[in-house]
Amino acid sequence: MNKVKNILLVGVGGQGIILASKVLSSGLIDAGYDVKMSEVHGMAQRGGSVTTQVRYGEKVYSPIIGKGQADIIVAFEKVEALRWLEYLKPDGKIVINDYKIPSATVLSGKEKYPEKVLEKLEEKFDNITIINAADEAVKLGNIKAQNIVMLGGLIKALKIDNIDWNKAVKENVKEKFIDLNLKAIEKGMEFEEEKAV
């Protein structure tokens, strides 16, 4: 049986979601999976909604994930998790970054940033891992590495940590950031281990 896994990565422009998806796809391809990836940008500038869809398995025919089909949603920003929930399978999993980026409408005062986002998600879903990826990335020396911390959490959640992720990082990240990102992916995998205990 050709079991295809559907991963939806969601967040805000400038968070490095596309890079994380490329590292993920690269590792999966190296491991012998058929992989399809699509990306959708919201507003062209930083701050717009960005999503990538990664599907992998023995044979994948389309990169598109329909509503109610995602095995896992990886949310790089809290409200983006709420925005894309209808894509999650009933028994799906959420890996969420405890990080807030107010939208333009929130910053202008037209809307309020939703309260207790994580609490609402935890009430609805048992299978949720919360990662404070920004804090961990800052400890590693660069907040921009939070995308790879999140990728590490996703890898552990999917139980695909037997793949050579260091190689995938090295092939997709600028040389001067390789060491930082190798530490970041390892840190993200630790979060999922802690959650599993």
From TrEMBL:
Source species, domain of life: Bacteria
Has UniProt tagged this entry with the keyword NADP? no
Q: Where is the Pyruvate/ketoisovalerate oxidoreductase catalytic domain?
A: 13-190
Q: Which InterPro entries match?
A: IorB_Oxidoreductase, Pyrv/ketoisovalerate_OxRed_cat, Pyrv_flavodox_OxRed_cen
Gene3D superfamilies noted in UniProt? Pyruvate-ferredoxin oxidoreductase, PFOR, domain III (3.40.920.10)
Q: Does the keyword Oxidoreductase apply?
A: yes
Q: What name is this protein filed under?
A: Indolepyruvate ferredoxin oxidoreductase beta subunit
User: What Pfam families does the record point to?
Assistant: POR
GO terms, molecular function:
oxidoreductase activity, acting on the aldehyde or oxo group of donors
Family annotation (PANTHER family): INDOLEPYRUVATE OXIDOREDUCTASE SUBUNIT IORB
State the UniProt keywords alphabetically: Oxidoreductase, Pyruvate
Q: Which organism is it from?
A: Tepidibacter formicigenes DSM 15518
